[in-house]
Write a structure and sequence with these properties.
Structural class: mainly alpha
Strand content: 5-15%
Radius of gyration: 17 Å
Number of domains: 2
Number of helices: 5
Distance between the termini: 38 Å
Low-confidence stretches: none
Amino acid sequence: MPRQFSKERALEHSTKLTYHVTDKERFYYDTLAYFDSLHLAPYIQCPTLVDVGMKDATCPAHTILPVFERITTPKALHVYPELTHAPCTDFNADVIHWLRRYLGT
């Protein structure tokens, strides 16, 4: 069963913000929770290449790995132990290889 987010859960994450959360912002958090990648992963229909930086505080591994596990199409995961939320030259090269493999270009 997919993890469900409530308004309270969304607001819990917003407590890190330094300003008061308005009703409009609460609406946005509720909407974003609905579009959580975990809920959308079963709908992926194309080969999928995922990278995860183990020092990424913006998209931490514990949020990426459950999504990856729910993808049912051909997939690959590249784990970078020292990567933060930043571009990775190695991954870019892998993307080119991946596209050539699946698009035949």
